[in-house]
Specification:
Layout lengths: L25 H5 L2 H7 L6 H10 L8 E9 L2 E10 L4 E2 L2 E2 L2 E6 L5 H12 L17 E6 L17 H20 L7 E9 L2 H12 L2 H8 L5 H10 L10 E4 L2 E5 L2 E2 L5 H7 L4 E7 L5 E8 L3 H8 L4
Parallel strand pairs: 5-6, 7-11
Antiparallel strand pairs: 1-2, 2-5, 3-4, 7-12, 8-9, 8-11, 9-10
Helix pairs in contact: 6-8
Length: 310
């Protein structure tokens, strides 16, 4: 085992969640720090990561971990990640904590660049309930102990394998958060295409994903495509009724602004019983596209949050 080194204050990053407005009991942490430092085992044992994932759970029903190996040059590099999050989850800010660590020898600027460029369609493309918070934290850290030459350029070709692995870890953790959404009975993937731009597609996708009417319809296994049209319209983005088409799973429900002539309600109703639901909206206006990941809204979500402090 490696010998522990003295940790400087500026090397400690603090993250927490809790009831907003209540004073954080910092004494509980401060008084335990000496014991924590003395009990740390300096090892790469994966069970250390499991303990970390378990230690940050709140309303989560299960720990969230992801691991991946890759290459930089001829050297193997590892990426480990843990996350917590279940409710009050929306892109950019949430009651979410995620810590990603690697042994890759990368500069701070490379780490920041890679995180910024790979978070938009992973963590920033999930939503459980549209609500945001004060505690959103996603950290990418490197110990720089891998034996390859230090990389200072985020566009260095030697990072191709690392970037692919990082994206895998980020998306894996992000989807674990959605799949553990409070009260979830359905995991929903919303695919938007045909928008005027990628950014417009994302706004439309989030409008659908955050609609209580869409989410409750899916919870009730009701293929109510009118609610999807409503959510597209209220997004404020470019849309034309007569160019819009909507599919649930492999079944086209609406096209040309009207119900599809091939619509078979029995087949769609049967599909709606699946735990994983794919919803596709083609706006028919351009090449813009986006994928958004969310869950349904059930009675259990209300119960969990109504009883949160009691």
């Amino acid at each position: 085992e490696d010998q522990p080194k003295k940790i400087k204050t500026k090397e400690i990053i603090f993250g927490c969640t809790g009831t907003i407005g209540e004073k954080f009991p910092e004494e509980k942490i401060i008084n335990k720090i000496p014991d924590l430092v003395n009990s740390i085992k300096y090892t790469q044992n994966k069970y250390i990561w499991m303990k970390a994932a378990l230690g940050i759970m709140t309303t989560d029903t299960q720990p969230k971990m992801a691991m991946e190996k890759c290459q930089i040059g001829n050297n193997e590099v590892k990426i480990f990640g843990v996350a917590k999050g279940s409710g009050m989850i929306a892109p950019d800010m949430a009651t979410m904590l995620s810590f990603i660590a690697t042994d890759a020898n990368l500069s701070d600027s490379v780490l920041q660049n890679l995180l910024n460029s790979n978070v938009q369609d992973t963590f920033n493309s999930i939503t459980v309930d549209s609500d945001t918070s004060t505690s959103d934290t996603l950290l990418l850290m490197a110990s720089c102990t891998a034996q390859h030459n230090k990389v200072n350029d985020p566009y260095d070709p030697s990072l191709d394998s690392f970037i692919k692995a990082l994206r895998f870890v980020l998306k894996d953790l992000a989807l674990q958060v959605v799949k553990d959404g409070e009260g979830i009975s359905k995991f929903i993937k919303i695919k938007i295409k045909g928008a005027v731009s990628n950014s417009s597609a994302k706004v439309v996708g989030l409008s659908i994903a955050n609609s209580p009417l869409v989410k409750t319809a899916i919870a009730g296994e009701d293929a109510n495509w009118g609610r999807v049209v409503m959510a597209v319209g209220k997004s404020g983005e470019s849309a034309e009724r007569d160019k819009l088409s909507i599919s649930i799973g492999p079944y086209t429900i609406a096209e040309g602004g009207d119900i599809s002539k091939d619509y078979d309600e029995d087949k769609v109703s049967s599909y709606m019983q699946n735990p994983n639901i794919d919803l596709t909206v083609d706006l028919g206006l351009g090449d813009g596209k986006a994928n958004i990941y969310t869950c349904d809204l059930t009675h259990d979500y209300i119960s969990i949050n109504a009883d949160y402090r009691s």
